[in-house]
Write a structure and sequence with these properties.
Number of strands: 25
Shape: globular
Largest sheet: 10 strands, mixed
Structural class: alpha/beta
Number of domains: 2
Number of helices: 12
CATH superfamily of the largest domain: Glycosidases
Helix content: 10-25%
CATH architecture of the largest domain: Alpha-Beta Barrel
C-alpha cells in the first residue's frame, strides 16, 4: 500500500470510498473573483505567506503553525477586522466544487491564535500574522491528505461572491517511523546515500527499512549533482543544473517529498563543471555571492542542505589569475565558501567530500571547521581520520570506509580489498558517525545487486544490531 502510494505521489483518500487523485490534481487555487469588500469598497482577502488566497498546503510532524494574513489591494480608510473559525460546511463546498472527497483534519487538534481574529489597520495592506496551530497524536494516516476548513467572517465588511472560506490541506507524517537508529540506546551511525541522478531514481532509497521498527536505512540522500559554473558574459557564478537534476527539483512532490516525509534529509550536491569556478577557486566576495544563490536554490526547492565536492574545475585557469574574483585552488578558499554557505543558511546540513582542497579545512573568522561542517566523508580507500585535518571535528561528524557501487569500482564490503582496509564493526567502535554509499543501485539486472544487498544487511547488523527489510522494489529513472 505504502509503495503504491509513493509511486502515485500523494493520494487524497476518502474515509468511505477511498476515492483518490494524484497530488498534482489537488486544486490549490489562486485569487478568487469573489472577494471580501471592506466598508469603503477595498478588496480584502485572507492568504498564507505565499499569497494563496483560498487554500494552502502544510506537511508536518508532531506540530506546526501556519500564519495567515488579512490583506488588501489598497490600504483601507479605517480598520477592517475578520474572524476565522473551523467550519465543516467550508469543506463540503470545497469537495463539491473540486470533485474530491478530502477528509477533515480533527477540529480538536486545530487552534487559532487570538480566537481567529485578524485586524487590517487603517492605512495598511496586511494584518499581523494569525497563527493556525496544528498538533498530532500520531493516529492519522501519514499517506492521506486532510483538510482544515476555516470560515471567514468579516466583522465590519461586506461579502461579495461567497469567498468566505479558506482550506488548509494537511499531511500529518508523524506516524512515519523516521530514520533515527540506535545502538545500545544511543544514536547510531548515519547512512549517506549519494545517488547518481543521471542514471538512478533517488526514490530507491525508500525500499530499505529496519525490520521491526520500520525506520529508514538511509538518513541522508544526496542528489548528485548540480554544478558550479561561471557565466563570462555576465561575470556571475551560479548553480547550474542539468536536465536530470532540474527534473527532480521541478517535480519535488514526486521525487523529493516522499523521502522527506519519511525523515530522510535531501541535500544537493555541488560539483565543479570544467570552467574556472569551483568549490576551491572563489575569492571571498564571489564565495559570498554564490552562497546567497545556493540558499535561494535550497529555499526554492525546500532542500535540507548541500554536499560540496572539489572536482572537475579548470584549476589552471584559476591559477593564472586573469579573471578577477578567482583564486588559485586552496583549502582556504574552499573553507571560505563553506563558511559563507553556513552563515547564509545555518539550519541546513553541510557535508564535505574529503578530496583535493577539501582534504582539510581551516577556521574562517573564528568559526572552526567543526562549526562549519555537519559531516566530513572520506574519499574511497582513505583510511586516516578526518578529525586530523578538520580542527575541532567530533568523531561522530566523521565518515570513513566509503563505498562505490559502480561496476568499474566495486568498492564495497563484499570486495576483499575493502575489508582489507575497513571493518564495519571497527568503524562503529571507533566512534565514526557516518558512512557514505556512492552511486547506490540495486536494480534486478545489475550484476552487483546481490552483493550490495548482502552488504546493506551486514551494515544493519554491525551498526545497529538489527536486520534490513527490503521491499524488493526498484524505481526506474522516469524523469
Amino acid at each position: 500500500m505504502i509503495k503504491n502510494i509513493i509511486k502515485s505521489l500523494i493520494l487524497l483518500t476518502a474515509a468511505a470510498t477511498m476515492a483518490s487523485c494524484d497530488k498534482s490534481e489537488i486544486y490549490l487555487g489562486g485569487a478568487d473573483t469573489g472577494v471580501i469588500e471592506s466598508p469603503d469598497g477595498n478588496v480584502v482577502y485572507v492568504s498564507d505567506g505565499n499569497g494563496r488566497t483560498d487554500v494552502g498546503y502544510v506537511e508536518f510532524s508532531k506540530s506546526f503553525t501556519l500564519d495567515l494574513y488579512l490583506r488588501s489591494s489598497k490600504a483601507p480608510a479605517g480598520n477592517v477586522t475578520a474572524t476565522l473559525s473551523y467550519d465543516p460546511e467550508v469543506l463540503e463546498r470545497y469537495n463539491s466544487g473540486n470533485a474530491t472527497e478530502v477528509p477533515a483534519f480533527p477540529a480538536d487538534r486545530v487552534s487559532l491564535a487570538d480566537g481567529g481574529k485578524m485586524t487590517l489597520a487603517e492605512g495598511s495592506l496586511s494584518s499581523a500574522p494569525m497563527g493556525v496551530s496544528l498538533t498530532s497524536d500520531g493516529s492519522l494516516d501519514p499517506s492521506t491528505v486532510y483538510a482544515v476548513p476555516l470560515k471567514v467572517n468579516v466583522d465590519n465588511g461586506v461579502l461579495s461572491g461567497g469567498a468566505d472560506g479558506y482550506v488548509i490541506l494537511v499531511q500529518d507524517v508523524t506516524a512515519f517511523p523516521g530514520t533515527e537508529k540506535l545502538f545500545e540506546g544511543k544514536p547510531g551511525m548515519k547512512i549517506v546515500g549519494v545517488f547518481e541522478v543521471n542514471d538512478h531514481n533517488p526514490l530507491n532509497a525508500l525500499g530499505f527499512t529496519m525490520k521491526g521498527s520500520g525506520k529508514q536505512f538511509f538518513d541522508i540522500v544526496v542528489l548528485f549533482s548540480a554544478n558550479i559554473n561561471y557565466d563570462a558574459a555576465t561575470g556571475r557564478v551560479y548553480v547550474s543544473r542539468n536536465e536530470n537534476v532540474q527534473a527532480l527539483l521541478d517535480q519535488r512532490q514526486k521525487y523529493i517529498v516522499p523521502l522527506q516525509q519519511r525523515g530522510i534529509k535531501v541535500v544537493l550536491g555541488i560539483l565543479g563543471n570544467h570552467d574556472i569556478s569551483g568549490v576551491s577557486t572563489l575569492g571571498n566576495e564571489r564565495a559570498r555571492e554564490f552562497a546567497k544563490e545556493v540558499k535561494q536554490v535550497c529555499d526554492a526547492y525546500q532542500l535540507d542542505g548541500i554536499f560540496l565536492d572539489d572536482e572537475y574545475t579548470d584549476y589552471e585557469a584559476a591559477k593564472e589569475g586573469k579573471i578577477p574574483g578567482f583564486v588559485r585552488q586552496s583549502t582556504e578558499a574552499a573553507s571560505r565558501l563553506a563558511y559563507e554557505i553556513r552563515c547564509a543558511q545555518p539550519s541546513r546540513l553541510l557535508l564535505s567530500y574529503r578530496y583535493q582542497a577539501l582534504y582539510r579545512s581551516v577556521a574562517v573568522n573564528g568559526m572552526q571547521p567543526s562549526e562549519i561542517w555537519d559531516y566530513v566523508l572520506n574519499d574511497y580507500k582513505v583510511t586516516d581520520n578526518p578529525v586530523s585535518t578538520y580542527p575541532g571535528l567530533r568523531q561522530d561528524q566523521a565518515g570513513t570506509g566509503s563505498w562505490n557501487c559502480s561496476d568499474w569500482s566495486q568498492w564495497i564490503p563484499s570486495n576483499p580489498s575493502w575489508t582489507g582496509l575497513f571493518s564495519l564493526t571497527g568503524m562503529r567502535k571507533e566512534g565514526y558517525g557516518a558512512l557514505m554509499i556512492y552511486n547506490f543501485q540495486c536494480s534486478p539486472t545489475y550484476g552487483l545487486t546481490r552483493f550490495i544487498l548482502n552488504d546493506v544487511g551486514q551494515v544493519a547488523r554491525d551498526f545497529w544490531n538489527g536486520e534490513i527489510d527490503y521491499d524488493g522494489s526498484w524505481y526506474p529513472k522516469d524523469y
